[in-house]
Every structure is written in C-alpha cells, then in structure tokens.
Amino acid sequence: MTRLERHAGTIGVVAFLLLWETAARLGWRNPAIMPAPSEAALAALTTIPPGVLAAHVATSLGRVLAGFALGAAAGVALGIAAGWYRPVALVCRPVVEILRPIPPLAWIPVAIVWFGLGEPSKIFVIFLGTFFPVFTAAARGMASIPPVILRAARSMDVDGLRLLAKVAVPAAMPDIATGLRIGFGLGFGVLVAAELIAAERGMGHLVMEARQLGQLGISVFGIFLIGIVNLVADHQLAAAIRRTVGRWHRF
User: Fold this and answer.
1) Within the chain, which residues score under 50 in pLDDT?
2) H or E stretch covering 82
3) Are residues 150 and 163 in contact, defined by beta-carbon separation less than 8 angstroms?
4) How far apart are CA 122 and CA 111, in angstroms?
5) What confidence score (pLDDT) does residue 30 get?
6) CB 53 within 8 A of CB 44
7) Which of 24, 53, 131, 134 lies 20 to 30 angstroms, CA to CA, from 32?
8) Is the pTM of this model over 0.90?
C-alpha cells in the first residue's frame, strides 16, 4: 500500500470539511441553517467544559459497548445455531424476519414499559440495533461454508461439536466479522434514539438538547462527535477482529 493510499481517507475527510467551510464562508449556504465546521466546533468548545464533554462521550460509549456486547453475543450464538442446525433456523428465521424491519425507535415505548427510564432501556434499544445484522451475517456464514471443507474434516474423523468448533466456525469467521462491524456501526446509529429515553448525559442527549435550545452549531458538533468516536472505536474493533480472524484467514 502506497503512502497516498494509506492517507486517502484522511485526505477525503479534510477535503470535505474544507469544501463545507468554504461554502459557509462564501455564503453558498445560510450559516444559520448549516454553520461552518469551525463555527460549530468553536460554539461547542466555548460552551461545554472539557470535563462535561468527556463525560458525554464516556457515557454514550459505555451504552454502545454494553448494547453491542449483548447484541453480538446473542447474534453470533443464535446465528451459528441457525446456520448449523436446520430446526433452529426453521424456528428462528421467521421471528427474526418479522422483527428485523422494525426501527429501534419504534421500540422505545416498549423499552420504557419493560425496563423503565434507566440505563437498561437505552441498552436494550442499542441491543436491537446490533443484534439483527450480526445474526444475519453469522447464519449466512455458517450456511455458505463450502461442503468440501466439511467432507474433508469428516474424512479425518472430525465430527459433531468438534467439527462445529474447529472447522465450521473458523470458516464462517469472515462473515461473522463483517456482521460485527456492521452491528457496531448501527449501535452508534441508534444512539440518539436510545438517548431520547430520559437521558441526562450522552452525545445523543447533547445533540437533542442543543436542538431544543436553538444551538445548531453544538448540534452539528455533537453529530460529528458521534461519527468521530465511532470511527476510532470501529478502528479498534477492526484491529481486534483482524488479530482473531487472521489466525484462520489472511486479508
């Protein structure tokens, strides 16, 4: 990979921000509707103390990690079972296909009734956002394992749970890893919806509170803050996945 390829993403982000800044400064866009990135950052950093901003980030990140951990564990386990055992797939897939198109936002009233206004209801909404893509990817990965691999393992007397753990799951890991990445990103995607549930802190709460107060610059800053935190966290997740999946596959 060349140096230009390694920094292509950074160049794209910088070019986008410069174009946005230029459009706002030259009046191509109404600053009251879409403030320049520098104005949004200045409004947030001069209004919100660094400690409070760090608390917003830490609170939201904790909620996303908790919801993602639960959604990933359930999605991987059930997806592997559905992809390996046909009766499990016959039972689970219709239920998943009914529930999957429902937006997490629609579950907020149910979450409040079931879990109250505390952290469990917020984590539940994030769990829903992460579970379905992880389940779908895991089930697809298990179902698409080349039969020749399984036959070769059985010819060496590897069968039953050993075949599942030693051959099938490693073969499905690229699909499972993709599902984990997608699910993690969607966890951040539903963060604002989750923090509509009586949140007093968090990046989603910051965005909504600033909107209600007419502080559009802070709202824009909060939106980009969610994206930046997601980007950094996703990079760490991708590195961890590469270390794990790389034991079986090279990318």
Assistant:
1) 251
2) helix 50-84
3) yes
4) 8
5) 62
6) yes
7) 53
8) no
